[in-house]
UniProtKB/TrEMBL annotation:
GO terms for biological process: regulation of canonical NF-kappaB signal transduction. Gene3D superfamilies: Zinc/RING finger domain, C3HC4 (zinc finger). A zinc finger (TRAF-type) spans 101-144. PROSITE patterns: ZF_RING_1, ZF_RING_2, ZF_TRAF. This is RNF41 ligase. Residues 192-243 form a coiled coil. GO terms for molecular function: ligase activity; zinc ion binding. Residues 101-144 form the TRAF-type domain. It comes from Turnix velox.
Amino acid sequence: MGYDIERFVGYVNEGLLCSICRDVLEDPLQAPCEHAFCTVCIHGWLIHHGNCPEDRQMIDVSLLRPLYRYMKNDLNRLQLHCKNREFGCEMVCSLESIDRHERECEYSQIPCSNAGCTVQVERRNLDGHLAVCEYRSRECPNGCGYTILSAEDTQHNCVAELRTELELLRSEMICRVEEAKHEMESRLDSQRRHMVQKESILQNEIEELKSQMSRMMSDVRSLMAAERQHRQELEQAELEKREL
């Protein structure tokens, strides 16, 4: 939708009006037939129609283009009242700068920043409202450290609040201790399984070494027996040599 033409000061050229809503163009687009529309208006129109609402020529979203520069300049130079005029703002500025002004306008209605408060106040009165808002929060004057809402002042009990917090901390500590316990048990169990696996591997290696040692001892005994046999044969040969 466009800008309400009643907000503008002086004459507004017909060519700067949306062909659909008949208000002053907002975020304008132009069709090949040179008719101009607000972006929201023409997009909504083309959902149900495939032609220009002025001359019925066929158009498509892809054919829409930004407004000619000279028309855009004329549009930006138009003077209009702030939308908060009904609340007391007397600012009149160009269309090009109206959005910037209205974002900062002291007469703009803005929501209270306190959680739970649904009141909307003028920006210039926000500080005053925050000072008396029933949803404003402050630190307990008795020193318990709690942040309380003004509406809860009469119900606030430092001892009860601290006891509740202590119970929450106790429950949280118990949960953390249990989590740490489970984590340690899991780690110990994992290490235990690793040690058992390692022990099994070492045991197999020991058995293999024992088997190798047994084979070596058997080989040594065989070599010693062969050596004795060889020595006896040499001694026998020596005796036969002497006899000869």
